[in-house]
Specification:
The structure holds 2 protein chains of 2 kinds.
Chain A (H helix, E strand, L loop, with lengths): L1 H15 L8 H29 L6 E3 L2 E3 L3 H24 L8 H20 L3 H19 L6 H30 L6 H4 L7 H18 L8 H7 L2 H26 L5 H24 L3 H30 L5 H32 L10 H4 L1 H14 L6 H19 L3 H33 L6 H4 L6 H19 L2 H10 L14 E3 L6 E3 L1 H21 L24 H4 L1 H6 L1 H4 L2 E9 L6 E8 L3 H24 L4 H21 L2
Antiparallel strand pairs in A: 1-2, 3-4, 5-6
Helix pairs in contact in A: 1-2, 1-4, 2-3, 2-4, 3-4, 3-10, 3-13, 3-19, 3-20, 4-5, 4-10, 5-6, 6-8, 6-9, 8-10, 9-10, 9-12, 10-12, 10-13, 11-12, 11-17, 12-13, 12-16, 12-17, 13-15, 13-16, 13-19, 15-17, 15-19, 16-17, 16-19
Chain B lengths: L1 H16 L3 H25 L4 H28 L12 H22 L6 H20 L3 H23 L4 H29 L13
Helix pairs in contact in B: 1-2, 1-4, 1-5, 2-3, 2-6, 3-7, 4-5, 5-6, 6-7
Chain lengths: 661, 209
Amino acid sequence: MDMFFAAVLCYSIGILTLFAPHQRQIMAHYVANLAAVMGSGLVFFNAWSILASDIPVRAVKWGSYVLTCDGWSAAFLMLTGLAGIIASIYALGYAESYEGKRLRMLNGLWNLFICSMVLVLLAGDALSFLLFWEIMAVASFLLVNHEAEKRTTWNAAYQYLVMTSIGTAAIMIAFFLTATHSASFTFAAMANNTLEGGWLHAVFAAAFIGFALKAGFVPLHVWLPNAHPAAPSHVSALMSGVMLKIALYGFGRFMFDFLPEWNYWWAVIVMVIGLLSAFLGVLYAQMEVDIKRVLAYSSVENMGIIFAAFGCGMLLKVVTDSNWCQIGFLAALLHAFNHSIMKVLMFMSAGSIMHGTGSKNLELFGGLANKMPYTAIFTFIGAMGLAALPLTNGFVGEWMVLQSFITLGHNGLTQDVRLWTALAFVLMGLTGALALGCFVRYFGITFLGAARSKLVERAHESDTFMLAAMGMSSALVLICGIFPGYVIYLLCNALHMSDYMVLGVGGRLIWSGSGTFVTYNPILVAVVLGIIGVVVLYFVVGQKICIPKDVTWNCGTYPTARQQYSATGFSKPVRRAFDYLLKPKRERTYTQNDHSYFGRKLFYKLEIPDMITEKLYQPFNKYFVSASAFLRRLQQGSVRLYVSYVMVAMVIVLIWGAMYK
Amino acid sequence: MEYLVVALMFVVFLQTRIMDLRRGVYCLGVQSALIAAACLVIGMSHGGGLHAFLPGVLTILVKVIFIPYAILKVVRNLQDESEIVSDINVNYSTAVAACALALSYMVFDSLLPHFEGRDILASSLFMIMTGLILIVMRSRAIMQMIGLITLENGIYLFGLVMTEGLPVIIELGVFLDVLIAVVILVILTSRLRVSFKTTDTNELNKLKG
């Protein structure tokens, strides 16, 4: 525990740089971010040593407040520490561009944000959990609102604040209901609660809604694709990479400790909503042209996958009551860990692209690989990870998720469980395919082809810190993809499960829960892919030493950059296929029409309204406003009216008092 | 005592029918004088001394002399609108006041059966309600002030009957409160006249954002 306090001390130093004098802001910037790196390093190292050694941690008590750490929170602390180190190194370079734009504020809040996340994970009682949870929410709100000059930014920030407050309210209800049925507010006491009957369902519903809102589940995800693009990139990296995972932590805390007797329908709800979020998230990700919104929707997708795996584990536990259920939780935890590394990497690369070009519109990029070669390589690795291609850690996570669904199908002996499994495979399949398409589009449109605007010509590669951070995380993506054994070993410790069920000799992953032994050997895959690559290279390049370079034949005209696939055009087939879900609004007008075949100028506008916003939130909003308009008639500023309320109240009280004295 | 109560009820009913500001203020003075008389009667029935006379004398000084004088001074400045044009017919306010009187008797018969000061209690509640009715149903600021003083008189009478004399310090506090409230209201009414050229409180709705 002492080392965690040392980490909090480091963050406090970082927070105190807020008060550095204006002339010294660059120095304060370095101090703050180095403090964040140090603190995160301590958190990471300490969490790692807890997981590796499996020694129970001594809780620290202060009055009725408890700070403690068990396996489940150590796993998330490790993830927070790792992502914190990487993102803070990136911030050393990236945040410097905010010089003169409230830089000290940004760095101070940055430290506060990481510190509050660490403390949420350490909290051992309901009150301190809620306190740090709210500090986290407020710090992230202020960070999202950092570029408050822009109208869209503060719109997004306030939307985030409203949504996150609703989530906190739901979590408070869940904690309150649990704590009133137990001896005290500490987690240890709440684990021995006496909840029963309908209260169990109430606690589950409140906790699920609260944490699902933070995790960005459809239909509670609306704040997420707005808040992430508005925040500075390293902030969105950490919000997406870590803060969303803390929702999983909280939900797992409720499920494992406070509500150990699971209901069949709870598991189904968690799983199905997770799957639907995954599918809808990636579908909208495919449609976006703002790079950070693409990544934000991809976070919705991945949180969906993580919760689907978690729900699958719950369902396995409910249906079979065997140890096989651990695969679901392990898959959720592993994918959470992997996704946090990948998403931090991708948001950092998006930040570098924005830094280099000054835009985040996909349609304006193209051919950036020539200008930003390192960023291109790192983005490629991250995109591979998010598309769950082999050799990356994304694949390991999704392999595990799919294995847990296969295990569910194999062990769930009733028809309905098999039906849920079938649904899971359909949606996971669609999700995987769409994710692949989405990131092929993301990478291809940004880095390949010819430049689509002048912005690309002015683009420049990022500085050393940013490249170092991206390099570190892409190395981790590959290392955790090719040698996943150690991470899985640590996470098995976190879940108190024996790793012999998953790990084989020599880094192979072995799983026997699905009837037969299945194995995934990333090293073998790497070797085979390497050989195939060499062979292909030999045949393609080796035989044609002289590569003739020429202009592509284009019906006699010279090809221009505008003839390439645009980002919108690339996703057209998907938009067609899922027309009934997306309901795109097209607007096409000819502004100049000299000839019926050429020389036409076309104005094309495409809008993909978020159906959830349009069908759920806007009617609700409308209803709310009209209800308020009615209430406004009651309170309209007329003193006489107010006095008559007093009078009516008095008469009612008198009559009531006289009747029931 | 019964005659006082009857006279009081008559004056309060009259209050609901008066449209003219000046006559309204005179009526208020008479009402306060009756309260002062009731105060003195109750004080004497509990034995003499300074404590018996002080509230009555204070009532005469503050409510019978000072407040009507202050309000009349404002009314004098409002040359052209001494006539009230209320948006609600006066008959309605009288009818509602009659209902309030019936309600007061019903409430006290049910709450305190066989109480000897039944009529005084009922008339005090009746005054409170009538004060509120005047505030709600009249739109001129002066009339609302009259309503407020009526309400205040009702509360005072109620306290007098129920407690048979409050400690002097509280009596003084209550009178000071009323005094300050009236001073502030007079100032506000003058400002209202200057700003809006009228003392119609409906105009205040324009201040709404």
